Amino acid sequence: MYSTYLRLDILVWDNNRAVIRAARRRLAQSARRDPGKRDARKRLYREMLRHHADAQQLVKQFRL
């Protein structure tokens, strides 16, 4: 899933809303609207937010 996060084309200082929007754009239209895939979408968004938080933590730690 980290490779998916890297393909979102977002910057490390973007906010969480930008991450969710970028992840949503990457989903197929049928996956965005299917109520049966709601839990999978939530897992994807949470995973992307976790990777984004990790990237922000690295930047803070190394002051990049």
Structure class: mainly alpha
- The count of domains is 1
Strand content: under 5%
Mean of all residue-level pLDDT scores: 95
Report the major sheet. Answer: none
Report the uncertain regions.
none
Separation of the first and last Cα atoms: 24 Å
Tell me how many strands there are. 0
Helix-strand pattern, N to C?
Answer: HHHH
What Rg is obtained from the alpha carbons, in whole angstroms? 13 Å
Question: What's the shape?
Answer: elongated
Record keyword descriptors for this entry:
64 residues; mainly alpha; 4 helices
Describe this structure in words.
With 64 residues, this protein is mainly α. It has one domain. Helices cover 72% and strands 0% of the residues. It contains four helices and no strands. The protein has helices at residues 2-6, 16-26, 29-33, 38-62. The protein is elongated. The model has no long low-confidence stretch (mean pLDDT 95).
